[in-house]
């Protein structure tokens, strides 16, 4: 949860500064970078916790990575759609 908050805070601030649009390419990049950052922490932790090598921990994490890569993409797509819908709804109310 902490990584999700921190990563999205950084990603959204970059979006505000640079002005890029969240098309499907940026959403894919967002999901891949999120998972890569998470793996940098989780693989060494899993190797230490389970007393296995780093390649073994990577193999162990592969299934989780695939699942959460798709999940992160879809979650952020739905989140942004809901946020845009709510923002547009507020515009109509003010008129």
From TrEMBL:
Keywords: Membrane, Transmembrane, Transmembrane helix
InterPro entries: BTP_bacteria, PACE
Residue ranges of every copy of the Chlorhexidine efflux transporter domain listed in the record: 24-81
TM helices/strands, residue ranges: 28-50, 62-79
Pfam families recorded: BTP (PF05232)
Coiled-coil residue spans: none
NCBIfam families per the UniProt record, alphabetical: PACE_transport
Full protein name: Chlorhexidine efflux transporter
Taxonomic source organism: Enterobacter agglomerans
């Amino acid at each position: 949860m902490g990584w999700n908050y921190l990563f999205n805070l950084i990603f959204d601030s970059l979006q505000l500064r640079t002005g890029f649009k969240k098309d499907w390419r940026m959403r894919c990049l967002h999901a891949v970078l999120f998972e890569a950052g998470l793996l940098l922490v989780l693989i060494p932790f899993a190797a230490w916790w389970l007393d296995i090598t780093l390649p073994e921990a990577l193999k162990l994490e592969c299934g989780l990575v695939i699942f959460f890569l798709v999940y992160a993409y879809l979650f952020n797509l739905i989140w942004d759609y809901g946020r845009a819908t709510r923002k547009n709804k507020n515009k109509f109310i003010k008129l």
